[in-house]
Amino acid sequence: MPTLAHKIRLNPTPEQVTYFKQACGTGRFVWNWALAEWNRQWQPGAHPNAGALKNSLMRSNTPQHSHG
Predict the structure, then answer these.
(1) How many CA atoms does the CB half-sphere of 62 hold within 13 Å?
(2) Using CA atoms in the order 18, 22, 25, 31, what is the torsion angle rounded to 10 degrees?
(3) pTM for this entry
(4) Which among 22, 45, 42, 44 is positioned nearest to 34, based on CA atoms?
(5) Where are the domains of the chain?
(6) How far is residue 29's CA from residue 63's CA, in Å, rounded to a whole number?
(7) What is the pLDDT of residues 35-62, one digit of tens each?
(8) What would the DSSP string read from start to end of 43-58?
């Protein structure tokens, strides 16, 4: 049977843990925003696409996450 996955253990520093949590939070925020926007656009009969969502996110007044 072929190997389907690999487990890799990370031992991050406290600074890396902070960064990983921030990166995951940012990803979750963007996913939730995009899903809500997709659903908002879809209901009136429009057909949203990934490019339009990206442009809309860049123009929106969403909070900016710093990397510091």
Answers:
(1) 18
(2) -150
(3) 0.62
(4) 42
(5) 27-58
(6) 10
(7) 998 888 887 777 888 888 888 888 876 6
(8) TTT----HHHHHHHHH
